[in-house]
């Protein structure tokens, strides 16, 4: 017996068995922990998917809480659980931190936030001293995707064909010869911007791309005008077809291109494929052509010598500096905005004087602050599409007209506009007449509601900063302060009265010139013209 016990003590066979048992127990514990954590992760994914679907359902429905509850029940969650449904307002503004874009509570909510929590009980973790359960939660915020597209620009009434041809020829580097009827036809032509972008893709060598991918490219001007005709509204394109063909032919010999993103914006559908269908995004053909001309000119400052093209004036030169061209908002949600660019325009005129008196010189400076339109609401009844409405808050900025000496940096948008200094209007031997004048057009804001009929017809509505009773130039001349230096014989020679009479007679031709230049540049003096060009309703999108 003693010998056997000695051999047993010396025998090392099976010494690793306790260590193996310990390691196996630990491995089983870790495996159990992995199973429990996997169940927790799976439940987290399941809850997040459920709250995402519930948030989308709640955002689309008139009764968001009931719709969210139904969606959660359909996905296997009992009610009541730890569920919170909070309606509110979401502002899609990148300058605001994401956590602050949603504001709970609102009389007109456009978004909903949902929180759901659930408890997952563990099977193995508790054995090794872990918690008996984990609380898993999910959060989702969805915004109602009631989108509208709108534009801001000018009515282009009073457009003079001769002045417009001269300006377009100067901007495009070719010869443009359109009639007044051509311009009117183009001003009344609607173009589907989305169809235009679909047609532009193959010309840019792009396939299976999004609207934003096409907008990032540049298109030859001849192709640009040709595509406008292809994407035009069939109901109103016949009258404008000859004008588009003439422009395409005039541009065919130029290699000038235009960057599409400077003219168009697809808005919130920009990241969707070109093949996606839906309501058209209407834009105005003449606005597009004018905007493309300014963008293609390369620089923002444009000089134009009209010579004797304006009846009633000996000579007219126009210099202007403009910001961005006319643009459409694309399909955007509540809070989306669109602004016209500030512009400064210098018009230098020579006006014929009476027999025996030298001609008059009249420098007119126009500064236009931005006009701004903000989408305040979109109403899209799901069961009555004809009752849709869209409301815009339209603000027209202050405009200033002045007669005065022109400083060297007069057209620099970055330089402040000071008070005008007297300009020499008449200079003759022993006599000179100087004058200075300025007119301020105050700012105003109005809310405009567009009905379904307005949207379908592309109806344009105008918000004016002021009512110019007869003539913009007459308003400016009424404030003109004239000073006579030199020869003046009361009862015989009245230089001040003579100059006033000559300028008053020239007010009509000057008005024609000013409104034609401003119209083609995409602005209207003292007013903003806006139109809602389309809506997309009934959808929702996750935002957080």
UniProtKB/TrEMBL annotation:
Residues in Putative Flp pilus-assembly TadG-like N-terminal domain copies: 15-61
Protein name: Pilus assembly protein TadG-related protein
Pfam family membership, one: Tad
Membrane-spanning ranges: 15-42
Keywords assigned by UniProt, alphabetized: Membrane, Transmembrane, Transmembrane helix
């Amino acid at each position: 017996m003693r010998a056997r016990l000695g051999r047993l003590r010396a025998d090392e066979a099976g010494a690793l068995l306790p260590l193996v048992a310990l390691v196996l127990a630990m491995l089983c514990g870790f495996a159990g922990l992995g199973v429990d954590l996997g169940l927790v992760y799976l439940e987290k994914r399941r809850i997040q998917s459920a709250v995402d679907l519930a948030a989308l359902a709640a955002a689309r429905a008139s009764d968001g809480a009931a719709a969210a509850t139904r969606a959660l029940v359909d996905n296997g969650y009992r009610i009541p659980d730890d569920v919170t449904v909070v309606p509110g307002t979401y502002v899609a503004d990148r300058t605001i931190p994401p956590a602050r874009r949603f504001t709970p509570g609102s009389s007109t909510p456009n978004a909903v936030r949902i929180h759901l929590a659930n408890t997952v009980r563990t099977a193995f973790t508790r054995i090794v001293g872990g918690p008996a359960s984990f609380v898993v939660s999910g959060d989702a915020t969805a915004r109602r995707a009631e989108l509208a597209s709108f534009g801001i620009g000018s009515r282009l009434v009073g457009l003079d064909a001769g002045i417009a041809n001269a300006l377009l020829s100067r901007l495009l580097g070719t010869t443009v010869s359109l009639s007044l009827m051509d311009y009117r036809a183009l001003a009344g032509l609607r173009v589907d911007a989305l169809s235009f972008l679909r047609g532009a893709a193959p010309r840019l060598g792009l396939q299976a791309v999004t609207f934003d991918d096409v907008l990032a490219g540049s298109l030859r001007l001849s192709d640009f005008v040709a595509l406008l005709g292809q994407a035009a509204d069939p109901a109103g394109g016949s009258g404008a077809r000859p004008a588009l063909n003439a422009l395409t032919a005039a541009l065919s010999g130029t290699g000038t291109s235009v960057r599409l993103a400077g003219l168009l914006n697809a808005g919130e559908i920009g990241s969707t494929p070109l093949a996606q269908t839906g309501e058209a995004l209407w834009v105005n053909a003449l606005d597009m052509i004018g905007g493309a001309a300014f963008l293609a000119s390369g620089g923002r400052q444009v000089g134009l010598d009209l010579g004797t093209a304006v009846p009633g004036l000996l000579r007219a030169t126009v210099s202007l500096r403009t910001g961005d061209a006319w643009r459409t908002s694309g399909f955007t949600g509540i809070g989306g905005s669109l602004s016209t660019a500030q512009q400064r325009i210098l018009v230098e005129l020579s006006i014929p004087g009476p027999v025996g008196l030298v001609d008059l010189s009249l420098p007119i400076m126009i500064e236009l602050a931005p006009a701004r339109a903000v989408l305040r609401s979109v109403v899209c009844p799901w069961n009555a599409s004809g009752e849709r409405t869209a409301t815009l808050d339209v603000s027209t900025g202050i405009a200033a007209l002045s007669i005065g000496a022109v400083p060297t940096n007069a057209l620099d948008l970055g330089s402040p506009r000071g008070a005008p200094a007297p300009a020499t209007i008449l200079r003759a031997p022993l006599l000179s007449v100087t004058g200075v004048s300025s007119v301020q057009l105050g700012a105003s804001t109005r809310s405009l509601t567009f009905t379904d009929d307005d949207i379908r017809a592309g109806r344009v509505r105008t918000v004016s900063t002021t009512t110019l009773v007869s003539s913009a130039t007459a308003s400016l001349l009424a404030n003109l302060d004239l000073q006579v230096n030199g020869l003046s014989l009361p009862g015989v020679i009245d230089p001040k009265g003579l100059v006033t009479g000559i300028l008053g007679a020239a007010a009509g031709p000057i008005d024609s010139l000013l409104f034609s230049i401003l119209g083609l540049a995409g602005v209207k003096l003292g007013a903003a013209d806006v139109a809602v060009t389309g809506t997309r309703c009934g959808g929702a999108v996750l935002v957080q």
